[in-house]
Design goal:
The chain has a domain of about 50 residues. It is built from 2 helices and 3 strands. The chain has a 3-stranded antiparallel sheet, with helices on one face. It is globular and about 50 Å long.
Length: about 70
């Protein structure tokens, strides 16, 4: 079984941090792809080790990513 989850990747401190907001799990890497791959691995390990109760407890539901225009200055 597979699940499609959100990965938000941002530059931080010379590398990249990837966050899955549905489960509040993060990882990092030297490149965007490495951060994304490391996040996938962290999520797979979580699903292998976590009990169904823990998965339900951490699951925050649907995440909607959008942009907002804001006046500046």
């Amino acid at each position: 079984m597979t699940r499609r989850l959100t990965a938000i990747v941002r530059a931080e401190g010379g590398g990249y941090v990837a966050l899955c907001p549905e489960l509040d799990i993060a990882s990092q890497g030297d490149t965007i792809q490495a951060a994304r791959d490391n996040l996938r691995e962290a999520l797979e390990l979580f699903f292998e080790c976590a009990s169904p109760a823990e998965v339900c407890e951490r699951w925050s539901g649907d995440v909607f990513v959008t942009q907002v225009d804001v006046g500046v200055g």
